[in-house]
Write a structure and sequence with these properties.
about 325 residues; alpha+beta; eight-stranded antiparallel β-sheet; four-stranded antiparallel β-sheet; 14 strands; about 25% strand; dioxygenase; iron; dioxygenase activity
Length: about 325
């Protein structure tokens, strides 16, 4: 912004903090930049969102003090987020604070990434080698664009299920109304709301992203920077099946945690854009997958799928919707 005498006028946000004149985010992620953590700051948006967006700051802003970066990014989020969305975010932040101030974790070890205790050795070896060859050595591609592989140790699956059950007891005892995992599943828990956001973000960034860069580069696999992590439950007195749909993600990780169940197969019916999401499937696009505890399914969010009825027992799945700011802006 310039004044009539040709000098540049300093821009300020609503708090009187100077902002660089008319700066904008760059269109591509700076992968070499290591963003700061904002976990200790009181923010209107997720701290992980600020860490993700920091990689899109102009080069001359990367060395600014952290509070300056927060004010700049907050200004952008405020200007470009609809009022209704800002209100929703603020309400959700208060909702999450209510949970985190009262809920006492049962298994604190699941809240911090401990790769040796979480993952099976074959998966860790493939990630450490970080090549397409190493990834293909542990996975199966039973139909184009759907990858399955062993990922979690049984002990971790058991602990996470037990933690979810502890969350649900806390909800019941407090008569606290929690937000459903998504618009289709009525039973389950949004893990991010109970303090697992940081751990799941690291899971996405360090363990899902390396594979997504290889197998889904055209749909944001190179630039995954945010997520929605939740557990869903199927069986007696739970959801029974899940209708035909696409996910609100670029890439989805779906891992069966257990328990004993019969039925509940995933069915896939091909990738479609919004305009053609309800078109008929071709025979080569039809594929059914039977869940195995500890085994993951990785696929595009736009890969149409659903879940058949769980006929007996109970099935619990961890689902992480991985998203890309770059793709969302296109």
């Amino acid at each position: 912004m310039s004044t009539n005498d040709g000098t540049q006028k300093v821009r300020e946000n609503g708090n009187g903090v100077e902002l660089p004149p008319m700066q904008r985010l760059i269109p591509f992620e700076n992968k070499e930049h290591n963003p700061e953590s904002y976990e200790d700051m009181q923010l209107d948006y997720s701290p992980l969102l600020f860490s993700s967006l920091e990689r899109y700051l102009p080069p001359n802003m990367l060395s600014l003090p952290r509070d300056r970066k927060v004010h700049f990014l907050s200004d952008i989020l405020t200007r470009y987020s609809p009022q209704g969305e800002r209100t929703r975010v603020q309400k959700h932040r208060k909702y999450r604070q209510q949970i985190l101030s009262s809920y006492e974790p049962r298994h604190k070890e699941v809240y911090t990434m401990n790769a040796a205790n979480f993952f099976v050795p074959s998966f860790l070896k493939a990630i450490s080698e970080n090549t397409e060859e190493s990834f293909r050595s542990i996975l199966v591609e039973p139909t184009p664009g759907v990858y399955t592989f062993e990922v979690f140790q049984p002990k971790f699956c058991e602990m996470l299920i037990d933690e979810v059950e502890s969350m649900e007891r806390w909800v019941h005892d407090r008569r606290f109304h929690i937000i459903c995992p998504n618009t289709m599943n009525k039973y389950g828990v949004v893990l991010d709301d109970f303090g697992l956001e940081t751990m799941l973000h690291k899971l996405m960034n360090d363990y899902i992203c390396p594979m997504s860069r290889v197998f889904f580069p055209e749909v944001g696999g190179l630039t995954l920077d945010s997520h929605h992590g939740f557990v869903v439950e199927y069986g007696v007195n739970r959801d029974t099946e899940l209708g035909f749909h696409v996910d609100d993600s670029e890439v989805t990780l779906n891992v069966c945690l257990g328990e004993k169940f019969y039925g509940g197969d995933l069915f896939f019916r091909g990738v479609r854009c919004d305009k053609h999401v309800n078109t008929e499937s071709q025979s080569e696009e039809v594929f059914d997958y039977a869940h195995v505890p500890g085994r993951a399914v990785l696929h595009r969010g736009r890969h149409r799928h659903g879940a058949r009825a769980t006929i007996s027992g109970n099935r619990v799945n961890l689902v992480i919707w991985c998203r890309s700011y770059c793709i969302d802006q296109d």
